[in-house]
Amino acid sequence: ATNLPLERLALSTALGLGALSLLVFMLGSLGMLVPAAWWAIVLILLALGARRLLQLAQDLSRDARAFVSGGHPVAVAALVFTLIWCAFHLPLLWSPPVEYDTLEYHLGVPAQYLRAGRISFLSENIYAAFPEAGEMQYLLAMILCGGRLEGLPAAHVVLFGAWLLTLCGIFALAARLTRGTGELSGPASKNAAVAPALATAIFSVSPLVTQLTAEFYVEHFQALFHLAALLAATAFLAERRAHNRQNYGWLMLCGALAGIACGAKYTALLFTLAPLLVLIPLFCLAGGCLYESLRAAFLIGTPALLLFLPWTVRNFCATDDPLFPLGVVLKRRLSTAESEPDRIAHFEVAARAGECSFNALLQTLGRLWPGIAPARPAEAAMDSYIAGAEGSPQLLAFVLPGMLRATRPEVLFVLLFFLVDFAAWFLFTYRLNRFMYTLLPPLAALCAAGIDKLWTLQPLRKVVAAICLGAVVAIGPLSSMRLWLYSNFDAMAGLQSPDDAAREQFRLLNSGTLMESWDALNALPPESHALCFGDAQTFYLEKTPLYSVVFNASLLEEVLHSSLTADGAADLLASRGITHFYINYSEWYRLDTSYALAWNPSLDRWDYARIEIAARRRTRELLCRQQFAAYRQAWPADA
Question: Which residue has better confidence, 259 or 570?
Answer without folding.
Answer: 259
